[in-house]
Amino acid sequence: MNFPNIWDFFPGLHSFALMEPSHAIIRILLVFLGMFLVYMGYKEKLDPLLMLPLGFTMALVNAAILIMGEGQLGNLFVDPMVSEPSKLLDALQINFLQPFYNFTFANGLIACLVFMGIGAITDLDFFIARPFLSLFLAIGAELGTLLTFPLAVAFGFNFKEAASIAIVGGADGPMVLFASLILAKHLFVPIAVIAYVYLGVCYAVYPYLIKLLIPKRLRGIHMDPSEIRNVPSSEKFAFAIVGGVVLCLIFPVAAPLFACFFFGVAVKESNIARFREFLDILLSGATLFLGFTLGALLSVTVVMDPRVFLILILGMVALLLSGIGGLIAGLIACKVSGGKINPLIGIAAVSCVPTTAKVAQHCAMEVDETIMILPHAMGPCVAGVITTAILCGIYVTLVPLF
Predict the structure, then answer these.
(1) Do residues 54 and 22 touch, judged by C-beta distance below 8 A?
(2) Which of 68, 184, 338, 388 is the most exposed place for a label (fewest CB within 10 A)?
(3) Stretch 216-244: mean pLDDT, rounded?
(4) In whole angstroms, what separates CA 105 from the centre of its chain?
(5) For the chain, what percentages of helix, strand and coil (3-state, to nearest 5) are there?
(6) For the CA atoms of the chain, what is the radius of gyration?
């Protein structure tokens, strides 16, 4: 009678014995990092909507590694690298997140759904009221998106890969997903995961960047919300239609993103209650499954890719450069206006709506609790979405030509 090996009862622990020591150590660190992200989301130090599901599955997927077919290590969550038809069919039947990944991530659908939901919660009032200021700040906040491209090329990435990494500087997760799927699908997993993890981390870092670059007296400049002219809903609705058509005409490759974002805006401004309610639920559900699936992708097998470390560095550089560019543009606007514009609204142009606008408001209130710059910050925040989408369209259209 053959007795089973004790390790057969604990395949998760047994998998440690089959890994290289360095991989085993990284795996343990990823489990604790995932738990840390959950804690930071729970305490609302980082965005809980993303960090709770992402950190949760990140910890669990690295704990749940086991021996799969042919003696290879894997998990029952998702295999992002499988492409051979018969193996993909097996994965779709075995891995519980595989259908969601292949039918919403791999074709960019999840990015479009999130963008549609974002459009439905985006207020265009402040952008339309002061479009030139908003766009000026947004262009400055694309510094990371522009400079990281040649930097990535210098580190050995080809043009398509470099463009996919550079889009991280726009701080717009759906745009990163969309660009990497089109330009560098083989790097989609590390770029997407790094982009979303860094969005949460950098928003914790931006306040320190603000204190380093912006003097306290300038952070305390008041901006009266009543100065923003009232924009009628019809004007915002017309802008959504015309803006969507024009951008799709100029950058048809990025048309799915433009279509979803401006349709969300059109639904908001047409005030169709049932559509708005659905898009609100859609955004919540898409964000939950986005974070949950991204966490499952962040297994030790992905992290140990030798190119991931470089992408980690370049992603952080891109977001920091974008923050610096936005603040420099804010300082210029402050100077030109004779000190009437609070330069903090420049950081809001790093486009994740409305997180960076809230960062600007929080940093201003640390100086004076009566300050209200959030309405003014929303203009460049929305403009940042548009400029990032335009740069994404430029990269996706032009880079494949070289």
Answers:
(1) no
(2) 338
(3) 88
(4) 14
(5) 75, 0, 20
(6) 22
